[in-house]
Design goal:
Layout (H helix, E strand, L loop, with lengths): L2 E4 L1 E4 L2 E8 L17 H23 L7 H13 L3 H14 L3 H16 L5 H22 L18 E5 L4 H7 L6 E4 L7 H9 L3 E3 L4 H4 L5 E5 L4 E4 L3 H22 L15 E6 L5 H6 L5 E5 L13 H14 L5 E4 L29 H7 L1 H14 L5 E5 L5 H20 L9 E6 L2 H5 L1 H5 L4 E4 L1 H9 L17 H16 L4 E3 L10 H7 L3 E4 L4 H9 L3 H11 L5 H13 L1
Parallel strand pairs: 3-4, 4-5, 5-6, 9-10, 9-16, 10-11, 11-12, 12-13, 13-14, 14-15, 15-16
Antiparallel strand pairs: 1-8, 2-6, 3-7, 7-8
Helix pairs in contact: 1-2, 1-3, 1-5, 2-5, 2-6, 3-4, 4-5, 11-13, 13-14, 19-21, 21-22
Length: 581
């Protein structure tokens, strides 16, 4: 019987293959009563299991060298949980007080902690309940004498690249193990954009759908599956007509990707000779190879806050300096734009970190980004000094996030001068003329753009937040996600106003949000006058392909007419015609 399941597509493309079910341990354990004289031995058994799992995690750290950098952080999280008194000490108390077996005591405490995590407003923090479950599962397996590695058995004659892993969830250990394999796809019952599966799938450029709720229980081993990572759809036992249609789509996608690779060295300019710069957005130094493979002309946005996440302390100056230096040297003379950290909103610090308690409820409208940096001058100085020190290795630009007031720029420039002065006093070399730019992501900044053009060397439009703030929509809230509309007339007006205003006074302006990497919007932006795009490395060649086929002299008048339209439906029709021309 054929049926369709829906989840969250976290890595695009199409995969067709046979289901490979991954076995997983159950957390439904028996409640046993322990004799008084055996209580100490039961606690010792629990401690021994925790110790073994800790050693396994330590061993795994050495296996992350060629895995995505974030996976090492996830392993650190699991290790941290194994040292957390709330998860480790409490079960000992339960064993002693209730004279119960270690497995039951641990699961009781796990359920208590999971309920606490479910209360968090932040999506990223809520997802950490999955890490708690995975850690507990590993300890339970050890207590029960089961192997801690995932067990999978493929059918005879089936190649790995024809297999689609179906799991309730994947732990960091599973993910690291899978880096050595060539599976066609992964699908899981749980998880989101920050889950281990999502990170792995994106790093391996394979289709993946997560958050499917009950795929593991509905799909049988060996069943034929189609995974559509773009639409977040999995088709089980497709009928021949649907299968043929998807095979054709899959071949077309693969053919297009092969053709796109030929454009890597092509000069990025339109038919009528307009030069367009295509940069990469990165989150960690490990993203540099992918950026270069995509043909990036530089880094248009280095989101430094990812260096700060999943830890209880702040990275010191040397650690930050080494990360920035690695990126600059890796880009080999290409410009690198480093954004000061944008903590808050969907990228909170851990609650137990030294600054975690300073980001309050509704952080999207609170003390985040440059507001937090200016409120924590010592932390800000550490980052500014590290960035300046790295500037001697190549061209660096400094980008200030979430600007709304002119005084925020003035205070930032004063802080930068303070950092420069301290480095001069220590006779440390740096780029004295480092350029400073600002993010335009608040409507107030776009409307009062003159304040920023007079003070800054360049601008970068962050469309993700600009849309969120313009339409009063929390982009992490699934209940209103359908209202998140990049083509809303108000959004387009703000974009056009910012780009035109910057162009008039000769200040470079780029777009670095998700809109920049959408090929369907490339012609629209070119018609608005945008000449600098920054996006995820995987999108660069797709956007370049659109640039090479565009004629700005022909597009610009059409776009000007489009911007006068107020009906979303008519705007979309006009966009379709623009892309078809």
């Amino acid at each position: 019987m054929s049926f369709t399941l829906h989840g969250r597509g976290v890595s695009g493309g199409i995969a067709i293959g046979r289901a490979l079910l991954m076995s997983h341990a159950t957390l439904e354990v028996s409640h046993l009563t322990v004799a008084p004289r055996m209580v100490d031995k039961e606690i010792a058994r629990f401690d021994a299991a925790v110790r073994v799992v800790k050693e396994e995690l330590e061993a795994m750290k050495g296996a992350t060298e060629h895995a995505p950098a974030e996976l090492s952080a996830f392993i650190d999280i699991h290790t941290m949980f194994l040292e957390d008194p709330e998860l480790i000490d409490k079960p000992r108390e339960i064993i002693r007080e209730r004279r119960c077996n270690a497995e039951w005591a641990l699961v009781q405490q796990m359920e208590h902690l999971v309920r606490q995590f479910e209360q968090f407003d932040d999506v990223y923090l809520r997802e950490r309940k999955l890490d708690v479950r995975q850690v507990v599962e590993r300890v339970i397996k050890e207590l029960l004498g089961h192997p801690s590695r995932a067990v999978m058995r493929a059918g005879k004659g089936v190649k790995e690249e024809q297999l689609i892993v179906v799991a309730h969830d994947l732990s960091p250990a599973d993910v690291i193990t899978f880096k050595e394999h060539r599976f066609a796809s992964f699908i899981t019952d749980v998880g989101g954009a920050t889950s281990h599966t999502a990170i792995l799938a994106r790093s391996m450029a394979i289709p993946s759908v997560v958050g499917m709720e009950n795929a593991r229980s509905l799909i049988r081993d060996g069943e034929l599956l189609i995974v559509d990572g773009q639409r977040g759809v999995v088709i089980v036992n497709p009928d021949p007509r649907v299968l043929d249609e998807y095979k054709l789509r899959k071949n077309q996608i693969e053919l297009e990707e092969t053709k796109l690779k030929r454009l890597k060295t092509a000069k990025s300019q339109t038919i009528d000779g307009v030069q367009v710069q295509l940069f990469a957005n990165i989150e960690l130094p490990g993203d540099i190879p992918e950026a270069l493979e995509g043909g990036a002309e530089g880094v248009g946005l280095f989101r430094t806050e990812f260096l700060f996440l999943d830890r209880g302390d702040m990275p010191d100056e040397r650690e930050q300096y080494e990360a920035y230096k690695r990126v600059v040297k890796g880009m080999a003379g290409r410009p690198v734009t480093i954004r000061t950290f944008d903590l808050g909103n969907d990228k909170d610090l851990r609650p137990d970190s030294s600054f975690g308690d300073r980001v309050k409820t509704n952080p999207a409208l609170g003390r985040r980004a440059i507001r937090l940096s200016l409120a924590e001058p010592q932390m800000f100085q550490t980052q500014l000094r590290a960035i300046l020190r790295a500037s001697k290795y190549g061209p660096i630009k400094l980008l200030i996030p979430m600007l709304a007031h002119a005084h925020e720029i003035d205070q930032t420039l004063a802080a930068l001068e303070q950092a420069k002065s301290s480095l001069r006093g220590e006779k440390i070399t740096f780029d004295e003329n480092i350029e400073v730019g600002g993010m335009i992501e608040i409507p107030a900044a776009a409307l009062a753009i003159g304040l920023f053009l007079r003070r800054l060397d360049f601008l970068s439009i962050g469309t993700n937040d600009l849309i969120q703030y313009t339409l009063a929509i929390d982009r992490s809230d699934e209940q209103v996600s359908s209202l998140y509309d990049p083509l809303h007339p108000a959004v387009l007006m703000l974009l056009a106003h910012t780009i035109t205003s910057a162009e008039k006074v000769g200040v470079p302006v780029s777009v670095c949000g998700e809109m920049a990497g959408d090929p369907k919007l490339t012609r629209l932006f070119l018609g608005m006058g945008l000449r600098i795009f920054s996006m995820h490395p995987s999108q660069i060649l797709k956007v370049k392909n659109r640039v090479l086929k565009a004629d700005v002299s022909d597009i610009a008048p059409t776009v000007r007419r489009m911007l006068r339209l107020e009906e979303p439906g008519k705007l979309r029709e006009a966009l379709e015609k623009l892309n078809a021309s």
